[in-house]
Amino acid sequence: MLSQVKGLSRHFTEESLRAYLVARSVRRDDGCLIVRGYGSQRGVYQKVAGRAWAHITAYVVFVGNFDPNLDVHHLCGVPDCIEPTHLRQVTHAQSCRARERNARCRNGHDREVDPATGTYRRVCRACNRDAQRRWRQRQAAEVAQARQAYGRS
Hints:
The structure is a single chain. Helix 1 crosses helix 2. A hairpin with a 5-residue loop joins strand 1 (25-27) and strand 2. The protein is an alpha+beta fold. The protein is elongated. The model has no long low-confidence stretch (mean pLDDT 83). It has helices spanning 14-23, 54-63, 92-98, 125-149; strands at 25-27, 33-35, 47-48, 52-53, 71-74, 87-90. The chain has a two-stranded antiparallel sheet.
């Protein structure tokens, strides 16, 4: 079953991989088992044991019955959690539907609700307006530079 996990190093057995994941993880107060993968960034999906995703390898060794055609979904919403009771396998469509968008964009603007779908818009209008303004300024600067290079004003 370990051979079905993409990127997993071949020298692991189920027992050694289970011990490896437990040694690299810390239990939090809310019940999540947070794994420390490669790199220093925390709060994101982690890779361990070669180039395999930690939550997928944890599902394989702790839960079993892994289907490579399905996605492993976190019930707790914490990407670096490998607690077996927080993981389940769902279809890709179910995984996409379960994602939730924040009411605010990363710059702090309120997002609008799309009347067609009833969900938050993917792009914040204020950020989109600012991005378009910056793009127009860059384009105008490139045109001015090209005109100057050809001796036109």
